[in-house]
Amino acid sequence: MTIHFNYWLTGAGWAVVFLTSDKQIVRFELSYLSDPLTDLFEGLCRLINSESVIEKIAFFDEPGEHSLVISKFDKDEIKIEIFWNTEKEGINEVDKSQNTGEIMYSDTDTLRNLALVICVGIDSLLGQHSLKDYKDKWVSFDFPLDKYKQLQLLLN
To answer: What's the pLDDT tens digit per position in 74-97?
Structure first.
């Protein structure tokens, strides 16, 4: 079961993610070469709305990427996996059901719990950074406030 999700901006164009369960923890860095928060919020919304059964979110590093794969296997039960790939896969070109690379994290949870824990982590991020500060630090992308509000509405 997922306990913590943290997404911290660590410098111009850099962030670190922590995902903690009752059994394990994973930490990885990422760069501004992708917009993973938009992809994460949109993917969670699609899963909640039963528009998809698997979502893959790329967190680009330089070089390589971490891929968060969320697979629905029951009404609300999900499998969460994080893979490390030394090269970027081309996230839109890869079959989401085929995962390559080294598995860094694997757990099961409910979709609702994962989404709520992610929201707590994002609220912490927003408590530390204004939207302008986020854009200044993340460089290429604004904080996806509209997508985040959409996810919050689905959870209420």
So the answer is: 888 999 999 999 876 544 344 545
DSSP string, 1-35: -EEEEEEEEEETTEEEEEEEESS-EEEEEEETTS-
Nearest to 85 by CA among 105, 62, 101, 109: 101
Q: Domains of the chain (ranges plus CATH)? A: 2-155 (3.30.2450)
Rounded-to-5 percentages of helix, strand, coil across the chain: 30, 35, 30
Number of other CB atoms surrounding residue 69 within 10 Å = 21
This prediction's pTM: 0.91
pLDDT given at position 100? 66
Q: For the chain, what's the residue count?
A: 156
User: What backbone torsions phi and psi does residue 57 show, to the nearest 5 degrees?
Assistant: -115, 125
